[in-house]
Amino acid sequence: QQPVQSPQAVILREGEDAVINCSSSKALYSVHWYRQKHGEAPVFLMILLKGGEQKGHDKISASFNEKKQQSSLYLTASQLSYSGTYFCGTATGANNLFFGTGTRLTVIP
Amino acid sequence: DGGITQSPKYLFRKEGQNVTLSCEQNLNHDAMYWYRQDPGQGLRLIYYSQIVNDFQKGDIAEGYSVSREKKESFPLTVTSAQKNPTAFYLCASKPSTSTDTQYFGPGTRLTVL
User: Is the omega angle on the peptide bond into residue A7 within 30 degrees of 0, that is, cis?
Assistant: First the structure.
């Protein structure tokens, strides 16, 4: 039930945009996005519930396509602080999260 | 100050020794989780507990044991039966409602020499 994330890694210059995708073979109830800095705990970014909603704060937003069982995380006008590994966690109901293997994002000056 | 604490941050043990990793939360969350993370890998679920005195195996429970005697505490023991215990261990918790997300502790990096 592990979701598949793409790309595995991406390098951006400050100010550029990026999209990280997360797809599942199972019908999803929710998608949770986290960012993890090296050696630290994952930090919660946002949760999307089935219904195809889009959420966001600041320059980071996400969408959830219920029909395709896919979620995308959008990072616009990237900043150095956006560097880290982004994980999606998927849930098929009121149960556990299954995490993807992560997307390593590096923002360079 | 509410949150999840894990101790110690770094732990070294000799091969063949059991070791217990601490996880405490004062968020009044019902569910607690233990994950293992290896370099370049995602998070793999070891054990989880939805309520006190009850816990379930995750995907990679072999060589690990847990207890949940108190709501706020969920210690993980890495036994000598775990073949490759060196990893970063993360504890998480969440409220009981299904739409809530999990919140992670700072992690413990275990190195077995």
Answer: yes
pLDDT of residue B39: 83
pLDDT computed for residue B62 by the predictor? 95
In a 13 Å sphere around the CA of A20, the CA atoms on its Cβ side amount to 31
Cβ–Cβ < 8 Å for B71, A21: no
What pLDDT sits at residue A21? Answer: 97
Q: Are strands B108-112 and B10-13 parallel, antiparallel or unpaired?
A: parallel
Are the Cβ atoms of A41 and B40 closer than 8 angstroms?
A: no
Going by C-alpha positions, the residue among B75, B90, B72, B89 that lies closest to residue B22 is B75
**Residue B111 neighbours by CB distance under 10 Å:** 11
B9 vs B43: CA distance, rounded Å? 18
Mutation site, A5, A45, A85, A97, interface B, largest B CB count within 10 A: A97
Residues of A in contact with B27 (CB under 8 A): none
Q: Which two tokens stand for residue A93?
A: 């109901």
Position B113 scores a pLDDT of 87
User: What pLDDT does A107 receive?
Assistant: 97
